[in-house]
Amino acid sequence: MSAAGAAVAVSGVRKSFEGGRVRALEDVTVRIEPGEIVALTGRSGGGKSTLLHLIGALERPDAGTIDVDGERVDILADPATYRASVVGFVFQFHNLVPALTALENVQVPMLGQRRPRAARVVRARELLAAVGLSERQRARPPTLSGGERLRVAIARALANAPRLLLADEPTGALDSTTGAQILDLLRRVRNERGTTILLVTNDEEVAFAADRALRLRDGRIEPATLRGEPPQG
Q1: Rounded to whole angstroms, how far apart are CA atoms 140 and 90?
Q2: Could you read off the pLDDT of 59-112 as tens digits, one per residue?
Q3: Cβ-Cβ contacts under 8 Å for 45 (sequence gap 6 or more)
């Protein structure tokens, strides 16, 4: 495995909404090692997606620090550059552009990278082949199955070779067979590229398949569950 993965250190992070009336995160501290697959579990609305957004610099914490490979993500002057060069997102509802083909959707993150069109196309084809969708390059999202749309979303997230992949409920709307295929794909991404992966899930089987599972309860991180142990109740 290559050493391409990013190290993530979250320390004392707090985040509230609605003028402080809704506390999503309260003194969250966690470290994720390079190349590690970590599952973040907990009840819906418990702050899991919020933590993903903070690490991905889509939002800023009210307090605390977030460090990714030695860079303070919580105070970035240009978070867009960080997101384009370090992080890949797999959103819960995929966020694919319906009017674009699968091949075109995968190219979207590369548009701001000054990469020639021919190079973008080659890269997108390689990624679609890697997720088993070579035959669906010209298909548009409305004609794809849920599993196929998710594969396109994963390929898009890998377009700029991120060191950190953030996935929000990547198997939530899939049947067990397709979900297992997606998990195998994520493990292959880690094994081949060394990518650090943090995924949000409410599925105990998904959490059990990760290297480590963290539970977010009442805005705080509970002790980790290592692979080989049953998830805590």
Answers
A1: 18
A2: 999 999 999 998 999 999 999 999 988 999 998 778 899 999 999 999 999 997
A3: none
